[in-house]
Amino acid sequence: MPLPINAAASSTAAAISRRVLAATSISYTIVLLDASIVNVALEQIGRTLHSNVTGLQWVVNAYTLSFASLLLTGGTLGDRLGARNVYVAGLVLFALASALCGMAPDLATLTIARALQGMGSAMLVPCSLALINRAFPDSAQRASAVGVWMGCGGIAMASGPLVGGILIHWFGWRSIFTVNVPIALAGIWLTRSIGRNDDGVAARRHFDLAGQAAAIVALGTLIAVLIEGSRLGWRSTPIAMGMMICASAWVAFLSIEKRRAHPMLPLSFFRSPLFSASTAVSMASAFVFYGLLFTFSIAYQQQHGFSALETGLAFLPMTAMVAIGGLASHRIVERCGPRASMCAAFGLYAAGSLGMLAATPHAPYWIAIAPMLAIGLASGFVSPAATSPAMGTVEKQRGAVAAAVLNSARQTGAALGVAIFGGFIAAVKPFELAMQVALGSAAAVALAAALIWWIAASAFSVAGVRHKPTSSSQLQSAKRSEVR
User: Fold this and answer.
1) CA angle (280 as vertex; 279, 285 as ends), nearest 5
2) 114-126, pLDDT tens digit by residue?
3) CATH number for the domain running over 265-459
């Protein structure tokens, strides 16, 4: 007996929604997988392509830098050209760039291909959320779908080092890039039935070309100075010129964004101390985690003599706790409050970093397990815990832009962590001393982030008391949003 028309339409819509979720989850998986998987391949890449630590920093940061600087523009492209169109274009670009990474004959080609991967990722992430938003109009279903989407990304980031170690052990370092190609093709195939016509609600958003150009120059020169400073000399002419260009670009960027009617980065968001603090702690968390991930990768493979597979297994306690921390974040915040739990998370970062000082090349591996558990738990907790309060400070219609700002902050923090910690390894000798400097710096940044969050959360609570709500509904809303 044929289904009624309404039932058949509902069944078709549900099938398309599931296909959208599967496609976007696949894309987010490879985006975050590539952010962590490359770390266990650094030793083999360096040996094959004859690269030093500076070159390896560029391999890691070319991806995160282009991802961070183009993320906001990727969302605008989706609004103007259609989320599905930009999403598919991003997947195609990511697949082609991954194939180029796998075939790269030299370090320069690999670095350029990594930057192209980052461009593809910057198109994928905001358009993935737009497609999910369209496919799941019901708020409860949409929240569940976003949870699945973020969960897949968290698992990918956590499993990256282990998956990379296994692939490298059996197929070599190039396989960690070429494996993306069939996955991206599967994502493209899954999008074939998604409608091409977007709602067009935000289609009138303008490109902030001047702001985008200034942001690319500002971030690019900042990372370049930090990576190349130890090699060329901090007083050398290229580094001095780079510093001047970087400072000028940042001033120009802020000036442009302040005057634009449709800025790429709405500076009005930062009038809220809580949004500013959320951005700062998101950046600090990525700075510490990815900086330490890069440093530990070099240490385990070059100092401890671990293979890529052994390095992936060594990272398993830390990366597993990233997934657990993300899943438990909401419950911990509900039980302990955002202020205390966030400060405790950064305390774990600091304790884990200082605890790793005992994990010398001659020490047994088990000494590093407890510190790595602490670092992984903190990393998994901070991202969702910082996002929710920040999103509560902006209007609903500007939520996508606010989310893009937070993601850009995380990617920028990751790039800075790799650049600065890699600079310690390149400039400070012996390696054990460089590790001590990096770990001490990570602990200091974590404690500073905890202080920033405590002050901002306290200020937000005081502001809530000063502006006491008059109605019962306002009172209930204030109680739910109050930062304890």
Assistant:
1) 100
2) 999 999 998 888 8
3) 1.20.1250.20
